[in-house]
Design a protein that fits this description.
It is built from 10 helices and 14 strands. It is α/β, with parallel strands linked by helices. The chain has an 8-stranded mixed beta sheet with strand order 8-9-10-7-11-12-13-14. Strands 3-2-1-4-5-6 form a 6-stranded parallel beta sheet, with helices on both faces. Strand 11 and strand 12 form a beta hairpin. Helix 4 runs parallel beside helix 5 and helix 8 packs across helix 10. The chain is globular. The protein starts with a strand and ends in a 6-residue tail after the last helix.
Length: 329
């Protein structure tokens, strides 16, 4: 299959590195220098500053959309209507309503659409999913998770700080990963409580979000996403009746990925502990793309897909509404 990338920044360049099973033939970015830089790093790639011309190419079978949040659904919808398979970066849109035309168009055109929640493909989470599915920690009770970074000089002037472009701040940026992972383990969220706050950065979007999410059977996720985390942090704990799984690190500045399995003993007391460490390069992008290719070849729906992104954004919107952020304005 021939692929095109729209959006040639950091994520677009990363996607271009991990495309086994497809051939990248075109890329586009409104900043033509970025498109040329990505094309020069890969043979046989034609750069452009027009995403429409790339999406409409008859020799392009799939489109990977890695742009700002405001243009993600616009470009993805055009690609779906052109009959292309689409991998769209999280959060896939600024608002859940922006995804509804895509859901309808995808069903009508019968193309495969995946949303890039790549954290599901980190080795710690693949192993945790395996242990949970095997019943290693018993029936699930709740999740406690934290995800944060400390920003950088000028962070409050970047596009992510403009709600017209981003749809929000830290909640819609890193917070959506925590929501997606919680839904993956616990199921659909039916009750939402929380607060999005601007504690430090002088910008009209949130820099911290605190969430309390609940499923129909009262499984709970207690989550915190922050860009005032002065030392980058990732921590995700899954509690069951018979034990606990603790994931820390994501590689790079977040530290080595580690998974600890604390198995409760019949007499309780200190648990039996097993730990795994994954110091290798982050291959989540490659594993995610390989599954996307399999989805297309097998004609099966992609998970996570548009419905997952829609459900995640509904959680985001409720917290923004409760917190007094009117990002639709």
């Amino acid at each position: 299959m021939n692929a095109a990338i729209v959006g040639c920044g950091l994520i677009g360049a990363k996607r271009a590195r991990f495309m086994e099973g497809a051939r990248l033939i075109a890329c586009a970015d409104e900043v033509s220098d970025r498109a040329r830089a990505l094309a020069s790093a890969h043979s046989g790639v034609e750069p452009s500053d027009s995403w429409r011309s790339v999406v409409e190419r008859k020799d392009v079978d799939m489109v990977i959309v890695c742009t700002r949040h405001d243009s993600l659904p616009v470009i993805a919808l055009h690609a779906i209507q052109a009959g292309k398979h689409v991998l769209i970066e999280k959060p896939a849109a600024r608002f859940s309503s922006e995804l509804e035309p895509l859901i309808g168009a995808a069903a009508k055109s019968k193309v495969t659409v995946r949303v890039g929640f790549n954290h599901r493909y980190h080795p710690t989470f693949r192993k945790a999913r395996e242990l949970v599915d095997a019943g290693a920690i018993g029936s699930l009770l709740y999740i406690r998770a934290r995800y944060g970074h400390g920003g950088r000089l000028g962070y409050e002037k970047e596009w992510r700080a403009d709600p017209r472009l981003s749809g929000g701040g830290e909640l819609i940026d890193q917070g959506v990963h925590l929501i997606d992972l919680s839904r993956w383990f616990l199921g659909d969220i039916v009750n939402v409580a929380g607060r999005a706050l601007t504690c430090y950065w002088k910008m009209p979007v949130d820099d911290n979000a605190f969430m309390l999410l609940e499923t129909a059977d009262r499984k709970t996720a207690f989550l915190h996403a922050s860009c005032t985390e002065w030392k980058n942090l990732f921590s995700f704990e899954i509690f069951g009746r018979d034990g606990k799984l603790e994931i820390t690190g994501l590689g790079g500045s977040y530290g080595v990925e580690q998974l600890a399995f604390y198995k409760m003993l019949p007499q309780m007391g200190p648990p039996e502990t097993t730990k795994w460490e994954f110091p290798m390069e982050d291959r989540s992008w490659a594993l995610e793309f390989a599954e996307f290719i399999d989805d297309i070849r097998l004609g099966r729906p992609s998970v996570p897909g548009l419905s997952d992104a829609h459900a995640t954004l509904r959680v985001v919107e409720q917290i923004y509404k409760e917190s007094g952020y009117d990002h639709h304005a």
